[in-house]
Amino acid sequence: MELIIDRLTKQYENKIAVDRISLTLKEGVYGLLGPNGSGKTSLMRMICGVLKPTSGEVKFNGIDVNEEEYRDSLGYLPQDFGYYPEFSAYDFLLYMASLKGLTKHRAKDKASEWLELVGLLDVAKKKIKTFSGGMKQRLGIAQAMLNNPKILILDEPTAGLDPKERIRFRNLISRLGKDRIVLLSTHIVSDVEYIASTILIMKDGQIIHQGSLDEIISVIEGKVYECSVDSKMTDYLIANYPIINIREESDKTFLRLVADKSPCEGAVAVPAVLEDLYLYYFNEGVNRDE
Amino acid sequence: MRNNLKKELKSVFDVPPPTRKNQFLSQLNYPKTSRMDFIISQLGYIRKRTWILSMLLFIGILDGLYFYKVSNSFIWVVSSILPFISLSSISEIVKSTTYNMKELEMSCKYNFLQICLVRLGVLGATNFMLLIGILILFVGKTDYSFIRLGLYITTPYLLNCYGSLYVINRLKTRMIMYVCCGVTAFVSVLNTLLTIQINEIYTEMYWLFWPMSFIILLLLSAREIVKLIRKMEELQWNLSLTA
Ligand SMILES: Nc1ncnc2c1ncn2[C@@H]1O[C@H](COP(=O)(O)OP(=O)(O)OP(=O)(O)O)[C@@H](O)[C@H]1O
Ligand SMILES: [Mg+2]
């Protein structure tokens, strides 16, 4: 099972959203992490055959993304989707199942099964327009899974989920990743930290880092420091180091920052987490503002 | 006796729990539907109101014919209502865009293009049958020939098809249906005004006007339909859906 993405590029009028990305994905969970506008949705749409690439190709076991057979192995949750106004949750799933080529009987089984798995069984007959954002999102996840896809692409699947549902979702995904390719995008670092076997960090249309959590973090391992300092020192540190976190305490300021060696007296090295790396790459702008 | 033995055996030996059950199941090929099944299932998803509207018009005409004979005003009333039938069909064809289901549908095995082609085919055929049905009811009740009557009734309908398709192919907003409603209202009113203002509109004086408009509109509509299908095939989508 191999999904090959070869020099995939998408250019809108004058903006390159995806810039010659090449990747090979195998069974497992891939977490695509990147800030707004980094090109996650554009990349995923091309993998789903919904957006035509400017150049490059996508193949699954040798089958091109344009072919019906490819779509047959695909499950996709778009970042934003609608539904026909007369649909209940159950109707919606039956409709999607008919497009995915499931027989009536199997469609009904699968729809009930997934409604239960995402916790919507008791509202199955309710109109979707009465759903909250999180419920609709869960319905979207159920829809993507109906045809038991080999490739599962989820664009910000946890957007709008409450903490309990988030955890349930994480457990579900890590189970699903055992025998299929799961690619999910998010800007919430903790969503992928524990479940993604590979983390892809995207910036300006390119994958700037990829690897397991440990591999990725090793870039800044041992370089994350925490300290509590007075306001003068705070200004100095902000001006000279990438800051990850600032918190005002009663008379001092607590800082978490990245530095090659101890930046000031009393700073303690702490274990790095993925969020440190993410902020290290993406909050240059934030620092300058302050 | 045998049953007892089975039970005994079961209780003595532990059945090992299935380890790779899910992997095994996912490798099985489940029966899939055929393209025909898909087309039939799509029929069920065409909104009832589309059928009801056509039925109502047809029954209304039947009813009207019972009481009145086919006069010129009967013709303009029917020909001004017909654009609304095409409006309801067109709203059905573009509902993926209206309700933002396009992206989901594009990613499915039977995708957006196939869904639209089924809708286009089914609704086109029913509209055609409705038109023929109405003509058959009318003919013989007037002095006009079948063809002449056909021209009077279908030309406004075609004008609306062309106008709506023109809009659909060029505008990229989800409000597209409102624009189409506007087009339909315009066509309907225009048709009414023309037939009321120009007394001779259904006479020999305009013998060239009708077939010319009919043929031009037919060609233009056909061109827009081809364009629409091409655009769907392209799978290009420039709607800025990105948040
Ligand atoms: N239809 C479009 N036309 C023009 N530019 C577009 C279009 N869609 C996206 N872009 C641009 O391409 C870039 C990448 O967009 P994309 O939606 O892929 O980002 P993203 O990583 O998914 O962002 P987010 O986290 O906000 O969902 C952005 O700069 C965006 O403005
Ligand atoms: Mg996005």
Automatic annotation (TrEMBL), chain A:
Classification via PROSITE patterns: ABC_TRANSPORTER_1 (PS00211), ABC_TRANSPORTER_2 (PS50893)
Single GO MF descriptor: ATP hydrolysis activity
Domain of life: Bacteria
Taxonomic classification: Bacteria, Bacillati, Bacillota, Clostridia, Lutisporales
Residue stretches spanning the membrane: none
Cross-referenced PANTHER family: ABC TRANSPORTER, ATP-BINDING PROTEIN
Coiled-coil spans in chain: none
Residue ranges of every copy of the ABC transporter domain listed in the record: 3-229
Keyword annotations: ATP-binding, Nucleotide-binding, Transport
Family listed: Belongs to the ABC transporter superfamily.
Keyword presence, Methyltransferase: no
Protein name (Swiss-Prot/TrEMBL): ABC-2 type transport system ATP-binding protein
TrEMBL record, chain B:
Coiled coil: none
Segments passing through the bilayer: 50-68, 74-94, 115-140, 146-168, 175-199, 205-222
Keywords: Membrane, Transmembrane, Transmembrane helix
Domain of life of the native organism: Bacteria
Protein's name in the database: ABC-2 family transporter protein
